[in-house]
Design a protein that fits this description.
The chain starts with 5 loop residues before the first strand and ends with a strand. A hairpin with a 2-residue loop joins strand 9 and strand 10. It is built from eight helices and 20 strands. Helix 2 packs across helix 3, helix 2 packs parallel to helix 4 and helix 3 packs across helix 4. With about 350 residues, the chain is an alpha+beta fold. The chain has a six-stranded mixed beta sheet, with helices on both faces. A five-stranded antiparallel beta sheet has the order 13-12-11-14-20, with no helix packed on it. Bound molecules: adenosine-5'-triphosphate. Adenosine-5'-triphosphate binds next to strand 2 and helix 1.
Protein backbone atom coordinates (compact mmCIF):
# COMPACT_ATOMS: atom_id res chain seq x y z
CA UNK A 1 0.00 0.00 0.00
CA UNK A 2 1.21 3.52 -0.72
CA UNK A 3 1.94 6.07 2.01
CA UNK A 4 -1.03 7.90 3.56
CA UNK A 5 -1.56 11.48 2.42
CA UNK A 6 -2.07 12.64 6.00
CA UNK A 7 -0.61 11.14 9.12
CA UNK A 8 -1.70 12.40 12.53
CA UNK A 9 0.81 11.33 15.13
CA UNK A 10 -0.22 11.32 18.81
CA UNK A 11 -1.94 14.70 18.54
CA UNK A 12 -2.90 16.22 21.87
CA UNK A 13 -4.61 19.55 22.61
CA UNK A 14 -5.61 20.58 26.12
CA UNK A 15 -7.78 23.51 27.16
CA UNK A 16 -7.16 23.85 30.92
CA UNK A 17 -8.19 20.55 32.46
CA UNK A 18 -9.99 19.35 29.30
CA UNK A 19 -8.12 17.18 26.81
CA UNK A 20 -10.03 18.19 23.68
CA UNK A 21 -7.79 15.90 21.61
CA UNK A 22 -5.97 13.11 23.41
CA UNK A 23 -3.10 11.26 21.69
CA UNK A 24 -4.90 10.76 18.39
CA UNK A 25 -2.97 8.87 15.69
CA UNK A 26 -4.61 8.39 12.30
CA UNK A 27 -3.70 7.74 8.67
CA UNK A 28 -5.81 9.26 5.91
CA UNK A 29 -5.33 8.08 2.34
CA UNK A 30 -5.45 10.22 -0.76
CA UNK A 31 -8.73 10.72 -2.66
CA UNK A 32 -10.87 9.45 0.16
CA UNK A 33 -13.83 10.97 1.89
CA UNK A 34 -12.83 10.59 5.51
CA UNK A 35 -15.33 11.35 8.29
CA UNK A 36 -14.52 12.45 11.83
CA UNK A 37 -17.56 11.31 13.79
CA UNK A 38 -18.50 11.67 17.44
CA UNK A 39 -20.82 13.32 19.94
CA UNK A 40 -20.77 17.03 20.68
CA UNK A 41 -17.56 18.08 22.45
CA UNK A 42 -15.55 14.97 21.48
CA UNK A 43 -12.86 17.08 19.79
CA UNK A 44 -13.75 16.83 16.08
CA UNK A 45 -13.52 20.55 15.33
CA UNK A 46 -10.32 20.95 17.34
CA UNK A 47 -8.75 18.13 15.35
CA UNK A 48 -9.82 19.75 12.07
CA UNK A 49 -8.44 23.11 13.20
CA UNK A 50 -5.09 21.50 14.08
CA UNK A 51 -4.88 19.99 10.56
CA UNK A 52 -5.71 23.41 9.07
CA UNK A 53 -3.09 25.08 11.29
CA UNK A 54 -5.55 27.38 13.13
CA UNK A 55 -4.80 25.53 16.35
CA UNK A 56 -1.42 24.27 17.57
CA UNK A 57 -1.20 20.89 19.28
CA UNK A 58 0.42 20.67 22.72
CA UNK A 59 1.98 17.45 21.58
CA UNK A 60 2.23 15.33 18.43
CA UNK A 61 2.45 16.30 14.78
CA UNK A 62 0.59 16.44 11.46
CA UNK A 63 2.37 15.05 8.39
CA UNK A 64 1.17 15.73 4.85
CA UNK A 65 2.82 13.71 2.09
CA UNK A 66 5.52 12.78 4.62
CA UNK A 67 6.27 16.43 5.50
CA UNK A 68 5.90 17.67 9.10
CA UNK A 69 3.53 20.67 9.05
CA UNK A 70 4.48 21.90 12.54
CA UNK A 71 5.16 25.63 12.32
CA UNK A 72 3.74 25.94 8.77
CA UNK A 73 1.20 28.79 8.65
CA UNK A 74 -2.40 27.95 7.61
CA UNK A 75 -2.10 29.90 4.35
CA UNK A 76 1.02 27.91 3.43
CA UNK A 77 -0.62 24.53 3.91
CA UNK A 78 -2.06 22.76 0.84
CA UNK A 79 -5.27 22.55 2.81
CA UNK A 80 -8.51 24.51 2.56
CA UNK A 81 -11.32 24.73 5.08
CA UNK A 82 -15.02 25.15 4.41
CA UNK A 83 -16.84 26.66 7.36
CA UNK A 84 -20.36 25.81 8.45
CA UNK A 85 -21.40 29.46 8.14
CA UNK A 86 -20.29 29.41 4.43
CA UNK A 87 -18.86 32.97 4.87
CA UNK A 88 -19.88 34.07 1.35
CA UNK A 89 -19.35 37.69 0.28
CA UNK A 90 -22.91 39.11 0.19
CA UNK A 91 -22.21 41.87 -2.38
CA UNK A 92 -20.56 39.52 -4.88
CA UNK A 93 -22.26 37.22 -7.40
CA UNK A 94 -21.84 33.44 -7.29
CA UNK A 95 -19.23 33.68 -10.06
CA UNK A 96 -17.31 36.45 -8.27
CA UNK A 97 -17.40 34.58 -4.96
CA UNK A 98 -15.87 31.54 -6.63
CA UNK A 99 -13.28 33.44 -8.69
CA UNK A 100 -12.16 35.63 -5.78
CA UNK A 101 -9.58 33.22 -4.34
CA UNK A 102 -7.90 32.77 -7.73
CA UNK A 103 -7.85 36.52 -8.40
CA UNK A 104 -6.19 37.03 -5.02
CA UNK A 105 -3.52 34.54 -6.14
CA UNK A 106 -2.96 36.70 -9.23
CA UNK A 107 -3.68 33.98 -11.79
CA UNK A 108 -4.17 34.87 -15.46
CA UNK A 109 -7.73 35.80 -16.48
CA UNK A 110 -8.10 32.84 -18.89
CA UNK A 111 -6.98 30.38 -16.22
CA UNK A 112 -9.45 31.88 -13.71
CA UNK A 113 -12.30 31.65 -16.21
CA UNK A 114 -11.48 28.05 -17.08
CA UNK A 115 -11.16 26.83 -13.50
CA UNK A 116 -14.20 28.75 -12.25
CA UNK A 117 -16.29 27.38 -15.13
CA UNK A 118 -15.13 23.84 -14.44
CA UNK A 119 -16.02 24.01 -10.75
CA UNK A 120 -19.40 25.66 -11.45
CA UNK A 121 -20.20 22.77 -13.80
CA UNK A 122 -19.20 20.23 -11.17
CA UNK A 123 -21.32 21.87 -8.48
CA UNK A 124 -24.21 22.63 -10.88
CA UNK A 125 -24.05 26.38 -10.33
CA UNK A 126 -23.57 27.55 -13.92
CA UNK A 127 -27.21 28.70 -14.24
CA UNK A 128 -26.93 30.73 -11.02
CA UNK A 129 -23.61 32.44 -11.83
CA UNK A 130 -25.00 35.99 -11.64
CA UNK A 131 -27.12 35.65 -8.51
CA UNK A 132 -26.14 37.13 -5.15
CA UNK A 133 -25.95 34.82 -2.09
CA UNK A 134 -29.21 36.22 -0.66
CA UNK A 135 -31.01 35.08 -3.83
CA UNK A 136 -29.98 31.47 -3.22
CA UNK A 137 -31.47 28.64 -1.16
CA UNK A 138 -29.51 27.11 1.71
CA UNK A 139 -28.44 24.16 -0.43
CA UNK A 140 -27.30 26.44 -3.25
CA UNK A 141 -25.29 28.62 -0.83
CA UNK A 142 -23.68 25.46 0.49
CA UNK A 143 -22.65 24.54 -3.06
CA UNK A 144 -21.12 27.99 -3.64
CA UNK A 145 -19.05 27.63 -0.47
CA UNK A 146 -17.93 24.22 -1.68
CA UNK A 147 -17.11 25.53 -5.17
CA UNK A 148 -15.10 28.38 -3.69
CA UNK A 149 -13.03 25.93 -1.65
CA UNK A 150 -12.58 23.46 -4.56
CA UNK A 151 -11.49 26.01 -7.12
CA UNK A 152 -8.25 26.53 -5.20
CA UNK A 153 -7.43 22.85 -5.76
CA UNK A 154 -6.19 22.08 -2.27
CA UNK A 155 -4.76 18.62 -1.68
CA UNK A 156 -7.09 18.33 1.28
CA UNK A 157 -10.45 19.97 1.87
CA UNK A 158 -11.63 20.20 5.47
CA UNK A 159 -15.39 20.49 5.98
CA UNK A 160 -16.85 21.26 9.41
CA UNK A 161 -20.46 20.01 9.57
CA UNK A 162 -20.93 20.97 5.89
CA UNK A 163 -24.60 20.01 5.83
CA UNK A 164 -25.45 21.17 9.35
CA UNK A 165 -27.57 24.13 8.26
CA UNK A 166 -29.80 22.14 5.87
CA UNK A 167 -33.11 20.44 6.58
CA UNK A 168 -33.29 16.64 6.68
CA UNK A 169 -34.45 16.02 3.11
CA UNK A 170 -31.97 18.42 1.52
CA UNK A 171 -29.26 16.97 3.71
CA UNK A 172 -29.89 13.54 2.23
CA UNK A 173 -29.63 14.89 -1.33
CA UNK A 174 -26.50 16.88 -0.53
CA UNK A 175 -24.79 13.86 1.04
CA UNK A 176 -24.95 12.11 -2.31
CA UNK A 177 -23.87 15.32 -4.09
CA UNK A 178 -20.90 15.85 -1.80
CA UNK A 179 -19.75 12.29 -2.36
CA UNK A 180 -20.07 12.68 -6.14
CA UNK A 181 -18.16 15.97 -6.12
CA UNK A 182 -15.42 14.52 -3.93
CA UNK A 183 -15.06 11.59 -6.28
CA UNK A 184 -15.08 13.74 -9.41
CA UNK A 185 -12.60 16.29 -8.07
CA UNK A 186 -10.22 13.63 -6.71
CA UNK A 187 -9.53 15.86 -3.69
CA UNK A 188 -9.24 14.27 -0.25
CA UNK A 189 -12.14 15.42 1.94
CA UNK A 190 -12.10 15.32 5.74
CA UNK A 191 -15.64 15.88 6.95
CA UNK A 192 -16.66 16.54 10.55
CA UNK A 193 -20.11 15.28 11.48
CA UNK A 194 -22.01 14.23 14.59
CA UNK A 195 -24.57 12.42 12.40
CA UNK A 196 -23.78 8.72 12.21
CA UNK A 197 -26.07 8.08 9.23
CA UNK A 198 -24.34 10.84 7.31
CA UNK A 199 -20.93 9.35 8.06
CA UNK A 200 -22.08 5.84 7.11
CA UNK A 201 -23.61 6.91 3.82
CA UNK A 202 -20.87 9.28 2.65
CA UNK A 203 -17.51 8.20 3.97
CA UNK A 204 -14.94 5.75 2.64
CA UNK A 205 -13.56 5.59 6.16
CA UNK A 206 -14.72 6.85 9.53
CA UNK A 207 -12.81 7.75 12.69
CA UNK A 208 -15.06 7.62 15.74
CA UNK A 209 -14.00 9.88 18.61
CA UNK A 210 -15.14 10.16 22.21
CA UNK A 211 -13.82 12.58 24.82
CA UNK A 212 -10.83 13.47 22.69
CA UNK A 213 -9.80 9.87 22.10
CA UNK A 214 -9.92 7.78 18.94
CA UNK A 215 -12.34 4.92 19.62
CA UNK A 216 -12.36 3.06 16.30
CA UNK A 217 -11.38 3.67 12.71
CA UNK A 218 -12.54 1.72 9.68
CA UNK A 219 -14.87 1.48 6.70
CA UNK A 220 -18.55 2.23 7.49
CA UNK A 221 -19.39 -1.47 7.34
CA UNK A 222 -16.62 -2.32 9.85
CA UNK A 223 -17.94 0.17 12.36
CA UNK A 224 -21.54 -0.90 11.91
CA UNK A 225 -21.00 -4.68 11.79
CA UNK A 226 -17.98 -4.99 14.07
CA UNK A 227 -17.98 -2.25 16.71
CA UNK A 228 -15.00 -2.71 19.02
CA UNK A 229 -16.59 -1.46 22.25
CA UNK A 230 -19.88 -0.59 23.85
CA UNK A 231 -19.56 3.11 23.00
CA UNK A 232 -19.09 2.39 19.26
CA UNK A 233 -21.93 -0.14 19.28
CA UNK A 234 -24.24 2.32 21.00
CA UNK A 235 -23.31 5.48 19.09
CA UNK A 236 -23.75 4.03 15.62
CA UNK A 237 -27.22 2.71 14.81
CA UNK A 238 -29.63 0.99 17.19
CA UNK A 239 -28.48 -1.96 19.29
CA UNK A 240 -29.77 -4.48 21.82
CA UNK A 241 -27.40 -5.10 24.72
CA UNK A 242 -27.56 -8.09 27.05
CA UNK A 243 -25.31 -7.80 30.09
CA UNK A 244 -23.78 -10.93 31.55
CA UNK A 245 -20.63 -12.97 32.14
CA UNK A 246 -18.40 -14.47 29.49
CA UNK A 247 -18.92 -18.22 29.21
CA UNK A 248 -16.86 -19.87 26.44
CA UNK A 249 -18.04 -18.36 23.15
CA UNK A 250 -21.17 -16.99 24.75
CA UNK A 251 -22.57 -14.71 27.42
CA UNK A 252 -24.42 -16.11 30.44
CA UNK A 253 -27.26 -13.60 30.90
CA UNK A 254 -29.24 -15.45 33.58
CA UNK A 255 -29.99 -18.79 35.12
CA UNK A 256 -29.17 -21.30 32.40
CA UNK A 257 -29.38 -18.85 29.49
CA UNK A 258 -26.25 -18.49 27.37
CA UNK A 259 -26.34 -16.37 24.21
CA UNK A 260 -23.60 -17.00 21.68
CA UNK A 261 -21.69 -14.38 19.74
CA UNK A 262 -18.43 -13.36 18.13
CA UNK A 263 -16.11 -12.73 21.01
CA UNK A 264 -13.26 -10.47 21.91
CA UNK A 265 -9.82 -12.03 22.29
CA UNK A 266 -8.04 -12.28 25.60
CA UNK A 267 -10.92 -12.09 28.08
CA UNK A 268 -11.22 -14.61 30.90
CA UNK A 269 -14.36 -16.64 31.46
CA UNK A 270 -16.53 -14.88 34.03
CA UNK A 271 -15.57 -11.37 32.83
CA UNK A 272 -18.40 -8.83 32.70
CA UNK A 273 -19.44 -8.39 29.06
CA UNK A 274 -22.35 -7.32 26.87
CA UNK A 275 -23.76 -9.25 23.98
CA UNK A 276 -24.83 -6.80 21.26
CA UNK A 277 -27.19 -7.50 18.38
CA UNK A 278 -28.79 -5.13 15.88
CA UNK A 279 -32.64 -5.05 15.88
CA UNK A 280 -32.74 -5.84 12.15
CA UNK A 281 -30.88 -9.11 12.82
CA UNK A 282 -33.57 -10.35 15.22
CA UNK A 283 -36.13 -12.59 13.52
CA UNK A 284 -39.50 -13.51 14.97
CA UNK A 285 -41.02 -17.00 14.88
CA UNK A 286 -44.37 -18.37 15.99
CA UNK A 287 -42.84 -21.75 16.89
CA UNK A 288 -39.51 -22.52 18.58
CA UNK A 289 -37.07 -22.33 15.67
CA UNK A 290 -34.91 -25.31 14.66
CA UNK A 291 -31.58 -25.40 16.48
CA UNK A 292 -29.36 -24.47 13.54
CA UNK A 293 -26.37 -26.35 14.95
CA UNK A 294 -26.13 -24.27 18.14
CA UNK A 295 -25.16 -21.13 16.24
CA UNK A 296 -28.57 -19.54 16.68
CA UNK A 297 -29.72 -17.69 19.78
CA UNK A 298 -33.36 -17.97 20.87
CA UNK A 299 -35.43 -16.22 23.48
CA UNK A 300 -39.13 -16.66 24.13
CA UNK A 301 -41.12 -13.53 24.76
CA UNK A 302 -44.28 -11.54 24.21
CA UNK A 303 -44.73 -8.51 21.94
CA UNK A 304 -45.28 -5.49 24.19
CA UNK A 305 -45.29 -2.74 21.58
CA UNK A 306 -45.38 -2.26 17.80
CA UNK A 307 -44.42 1.04 16.18
CA UNK A 308 -45.05 1.66 12.50
CA UNK A 309 -42.45 3.70 10.56
CA UNK A 310 -43.75 3.24 7.02
CA UNK A 311 -40.96 1.07 5.66
CA UNK A 312 -40.33 -0.79 8.91
CA UNK A 313 -41.96 -1.94 12.10
CA UNK A 314 -40.13 -1.68 15.41
CA UNK A 315 -41.28 -4.28 17.90
CA UNK A 316 -40.50 -4.45 21.59
CA UNK A 317 -40.52 -7.93 23.02
CA UNK A 318 -40.68 -8.63 26.75
CA UNK A 319 -38.65 -11.63 27.81
CA UNK A 320 -38.99 -13.28 31.21
CA UNK A 321 -36.10 -12.46 33.58
CA UNK A 322 -34.67 -9.97 31.11
CA UNK A 323 -35.30 -6.40 32.19
CA UNK A 324 -35.79 -4.10 29.21
CA UNK A 325 -36.55 -6.96 26.84
CA UNK A 326 -35.35 -6.58 23.29
CA UNK A 327 -36.10 -4.76 20.11
CA UNK A 328 -36.64 -6.17 16.62
CA UNK A 329 -36.85 -4.26 13.36
CA UNK A 330 -38.81 -5.80 10.58
CA UNK A 331 -39.49 -4.67 7.04
CA UNK A 332 -43.21 -4.07 6.52
CA UNK A 333 -42.80 -5.96 3.25
CA UNK A 334 -41.57 -9.06 5.11
CA UNK A 335 -44.03 -11.92 5.35
CA UNK A 336 -44.76 -12.01 9.14
CA UNK A 337 -45.16 -8.22 9.57
CA UNK A 338 -48.90 -8.12 8.86
CA UNK A 339 -49.69 -10.96 11.26
CA UNK A 340 -47.98 -9.65 14.38
CA UNK A 341 -50.13 -8.33 17.23
CA UNK A 342 -49.42 -6.74 20.58
CA UNK A 343 -49.56 -9.35 23.35
CA UNK A 344 -48.68 -12.20 20.99
CA UNK A 345 -46.19 -14.86 22.17
CA UNK A 346 -43.17 -15.10 19.86
CA UNK A 347 -39.73 -16.62 19.61
CA UNK A 348 -36.90 -14.25 18.83
CA UNK A 349 -33.90 -15.71 17.07
CA UNK A 350 -30.64 -14.46 15.61
CA UNK A 351 -27.43 -16.02 14.36
CA UNK A 352 -24.41 -15.98 16.67
CA UNK A 353 -22.42 -14.59 13.71
CA UNK A 354 -24.48 -11.38 13.99
CA UNK A 355 -23.95 -10.90 17.71
CA UNK A 356 -20.85 -9.22 19.16
CA UNK A 357 -19.46 -9.82 22.61
CA UNK A 358 -18.05 -6.58 24.01
CA UNK A 359 -16.00 -6.00 27.16
CA UNK A 360 -17.72 -3.76 29.71
P1 LIG B 1 -19.34 20.03 18.46
O1 LIG B 1 -19.85 18.88 17.66
O2 LIG B 1 -20.28 20.40 19.58
O3 LIG B 1 -18.89 21.18 17.65
P2 LIG B 1 -16.64 18.97 18.75
O4 LIG B 1 -16.59 17.49 18.77
O5 LIG B 1 -16.28 19.65 17.49
O6 LIG B 1 -18.04 19.48 19.28
P3 LIG B 1 -14.61 20.62 19.97
O7 LIG B 1 -15.25 21.89 19.54
O8 LIG B 1 -13.38 20.20 19.29
O9 LIG B 1 -15.67 19.43 19.93
O10 LIG B 1 -14.35 20.73 21.54
C1 LIG B 1 -13.73 19.69 22.30
C2 LIG B 1 -13.63 20.12 23.76
O11 LIG B 1 -12.71 21.19 23.90
C3 LIG B 1 -14.94 20.61 24.35
O12 LIG B 1 -15.00 20.19 25.69
C4 LIG B 1 -14.82 22.12 24.25
O13 LIG B 1 -15.58 22.75 25.26
C5 LIG B 1 -13.33 22.33 24.45
N1 LIG B 1 -12.83 23.52 23.73
C6 LIG B 1 -12.76 23.68 22.39
N2 LIG B 1 -12.21 24.86 22.06
C7 LIG B 1 -11.90 25.48 23.24
C8 LIG B 1 -11.31 26.74 23.58
N3 LIG B 1 -10.89 27.59 22.63
N4 LIG B 1 -11.16 27.03 24.89
C9 LIG B 1 -11.55 26.16 25.84
N5 LIG B 1 -12.12 24.97 25.59
C10 LIG B 1 -12.30 24.61 24.31
Amino acid sequence: MNEPLIRLHRLTRRFGAVSAVDRVSLDIREKQLFALLGPSGCGKTTLLRIIAGFESPDDGAVFLGGRDLTGVRPSRRPVNMMFQSYALFPHMSVHQNIAYGLEAEGLAKGEIRRRTGEVMEMTQLAALAHRKPRQLSGGQQQRVALARALVKRPRVLLLDEPLGALDKKLRGQMQAELKRIQHQSGITFIVVTHDQEEALSMADRIALLNQGKLVQVGAPRDLYERPNCRFAADFIGAMNFFAGRLDGDGVRIGAGVVLRGMGPEGLEDGARVDLAVRPERVKLFAEPPAEGGGRMNHLKGRISDITYYGQDLILRVQVEDLPGGLCARLSCAAEPAGRLRKGQAVWCGWAAAHARILAQ
